[in-house]
Amino acid sequence: MFLTYVGESGSTGNSATDPSQPHLVFTGLFVHESQSMSMTGEFSALCRRHFGAPLGEEGAPAEIRPVDLYQGLGYFSSWPTLKRNELIQDCLGILIRRETPVVTSFINKQDFATAKAAVDPDLVAFDTPAHAVVNKFLFAMSMFMDEFNMSLLSGDQIMDGALPPSNFALPVAQTATSFESRFMTEFLRSDDGMDSTALMQNICFLDPEHSVGNQLSNLCAYFIRRWLQTPDRPHPYFEGLRENKVIQVIYPVTIYKS
To answer: What CATH fold (topology level) applies to the domain 2-43+101-252?
Structure first.
C-alpha cells in the first residue's frame, strides 16, 4: 500500500481574489508503507542537524512551514538565506534520492469564481475552488495507481484484464485544511471515480506536525504554486524536483473561458 501524503498551497479561505496567491494547489506524495519509517528517520536526523533538536522540542519549530522557511518568517526570521536554502535542499533531497513520485492538481481561483458566476455547467457540482481541485486531484491519484499497477503486469495479464489491483493508495490529509471527507464520497460516485479500484475509500487525517510526509508534500505544493504564478522566472527547487523524477504529472482544472 502507498501512503499518499496530501500537500496544499494557496488556500485563501473563501476569497478567490488574492493576487499574491491566484492558484490553489494540491500534491500527493506517494510513499510505500515499507519506506515510511525510514523516510521519517531521515527527516528527523536532518532536523536534529539543523535545529539541534527534533521538531516540537525546545529550540525547534513545531513544523516546517514552507512560506516561513522560504521567506524567512516566523521561526526562520533570524536565519540567513544560505542557511534556509540548505534546509530546503536537505528536505527535498529526501524525495530526490528516493525518486518519490508526486502528482499535482491545481486551479485558478479567480477563473473558477468567474465561471461560477456565469453558471458554467461543468462547475455546477462544485461549491468552492477546493471542491473542484480535490476532485481532479483524486482523479490524478487514481490514474497514477492504475498506471503503476499496469506496469507490473505482463502483456498476457493485461490482455486478460481479470486481475485485481496489486497496490492501493490511502490519502493522508491534514486536519484544518481544504480537503474534506465528502469530496472523496462525491468523487467515487462520479463518472471519473466509479472505476477507481486502487484508491482506498477512507482518508486518514493528521496534524502536519505529526506527519513528515505531509510537511514534505507541503513543500512540493509551495514550490509548484510559485512556478505556476511566474513560470517564466527561474525556479530551481521546482525544476530540481521535476528533473529528478519527483514531480510526475500536473493536472489543471480546465475552465473554458467564453
So the answer is: Nucleotidyltransferase; domain 5 (3.30.420)
